[in-house]
Design a protein that fits this description.
The complex is a heterodimer of chains A (181) and B (140). Chain A has 181 residues and is an alpha+beta fold. Chain A contains 3 helices and 10 strands, in the order βββββββαβαββα. In chain A, the strands form 4 sheets. In chain A, strands 3-8-6-7 form a 4-stranded antiparallel beta sheet, with no helix packed on it. A two-stranded antiparallel ribbon of chain A has the order 1-2. A two-stranded antiparallel sheet of chain A has the order 4-5. With 140 residues, chain B is an alpha+beta fold. Classes of the chains: A alpha+beta (181), B alpha+beta (140).
């Protein structure tokens, strides 16, 4: 069982701790010739695939590297605009690496607050008495588990960091733990 | 094991249908507002999930489980059950294809984009849900 990341959210909905453990990211690198079969668009300072899903390249994947060199948002490593570079037939054949875009710290903060509100609404819309907030959210590729404590978490400290990593390693080695449903 | 209630939304957030079977607690707000809150919550969960990976299926709390199914045309089928129920994607798909499409979309007298008035749809949906293996007449 693989644990991808851990988020700790306080009572007000703010993200106070975040850890990304190693997870194999689905990436695909291919060589293309002009014209490019995929439709790319600029979104949020990243170049994303809008249309033309094939092989393991999906819609929503971002351009991670061109010819082996990591891109910097919408610009290549040497400062040129990615879309312009890929629109010029003289630059082909070109090797492009696609993958799921990594979340920025700002995006993680927003996601944590969003989840906090959804957690509360989940409890309000309950058809049963005395429901907690969302404990587990399921998608086709991952499960998100949430545990709500009774108290606040103390200020971040080194020991918490180390012990958390140890606990995650133990959990991974132990395989599946029984869900409390 | 039981089914609590079911919502059907279209792509604009209009609640096309709502049925309940065993519901012990009301939301405390008028039905119209409850539909909007439910749709808003689902919309946010979908965009939340798509930032990380894609394909929201279900969530559960300590008391109930919410199952979600969305078609490429934007029709959303939402069913609340108790915790003992596993994945029911095929059930929700059946509700869409064999009930909604057959009885509402293909019916020229049923206007789309508003609450479904068809009594046939309501009764067929009710008997289908009651016939499900995880639906028990005793409120679980």
């Amino acid at each position: 069982m693989a644990i991808f990341s851990v988020y700790v959210v306080n009572k007000a909905g703010g993200l106070i701790y975040q850890l990304d453990s190693y997870a194999p990211r689905a990436e695909a690198e291919k060589t293309f010739s002009y014209p490019l079969d995929l439709l790319l668009k600029l979104h949020d300072e990243r170049v994303l695939v809008a249309f033309g899903q094939r092989y393991s390249i999906r819609v929503g994947h971002a351009v991670l590297a061109i010819n082996g060199m990591d891109v910097n948002g919408r610009y290549t490593a040497d400062g040129k605009e990615v879309l312009e570079y890929l629109g010029n037939p003289a630059n082909y054949p070109v090797s492009i690496r696609f993958g799921r875009p990594r979340l920025t710290s700002n995006e993680k903060l927003m996601l944590a607050s969003m989840f906090h509100s959804l957690f509360a609404i989940g409890s309000q819309l309950s058809p049963e008495q005395g429901s907690s907030g969302i404990e587990m959210l399921e998608t086709d590729t991952f499960k998100l588990h949430c545990y709500q404590t009774l108290t606040e978490m103390p200020i971040r400290c080194e020991l918490f960091d180390q012990n958390l990593k140890l606990a995650l390693e133990v959990a991974e080695k132990a395989g599946t733990f029984g869900p409390g449903s | 094991m039981t089914v609590h209630n079911l919502y059907l939304f279209d792509r604009n957030g209009v609640c096309l249908h709502y049925s309940e079977w065993h519901r012990k607690k009301q939301a405390g707000i008028p039905k119209e507002e409850e539909y909007k809150l439910m749709y808003g919550m689902l919309f946010s969960i979908r965009s939340f999930v798509s930032k990380m990976k894609d394909g929201f299926l279900a969530f559960q709390t300590s008391r109930y489980k919410l199952h979600y199914y969305e078609t490429p045309t934007g029709i959303k089928v939402v069913m609340n059950t108790d915790l003992g129920v596993g994945p029911i994607r095929d059930v929700l798909h059946h509700i869409y294809s064999a009930l909604y499409v057959e009885l509402v979309v293909k019916n020229p007298l049923c206007p789309l984009g508003q609450t479904v008035q068809s009594e046939l749809f309501r009764s067929r949906l009710d008997s289908y849900v009651r016939s499900l293996p995880f639906f028990s007449a005793r409120a679980g």
